[in-house]
Amino acid sequence: MGRILIVVLALVVIAFAVKYELAGTTQSSPLDAVGTTQANSEHSRPKQQLDNVRSKAREIEKNDQERADELLKKSEAQ
Q1: pLDDT digit string, tens, across residues 50-78
Q2: Would you say 16 and 24 are in contact if contact means Cβ atoms under 8 Å apart?
Q3: Whether the predicted model's global pTM rises above the 0.70 cut
Q4: Measured between alpha carbons, how far is 31 from 42 in angstroms, rounded to an integer?
Q5: Which of 41, 19, 20 is nearest to 29 (CA)?
Q6: CA atoms within 13 A on the CB side of 67
């Protein structure tokens, strides 16, 4: 019974330590040279990446459509 209690307490301590470490990595907002937090830039970075992906997808779709139109014109000309 004592061994089980020690194992359970050890697991609780380990779980608490892991939770504390993980929470510390997500909630920390380091200061930049001006002294302001970088929280705004952290939140806008994923949006910026998503916007970049969207613009690249539009560019790829535009290029594909141009190629398809060129192939259609070539096939009609022959």
Answers
A1: 899 999 999 999 999 999 999 999 888 87
A2: no
A3: no
A4: 12
A5: 41
A6: 6
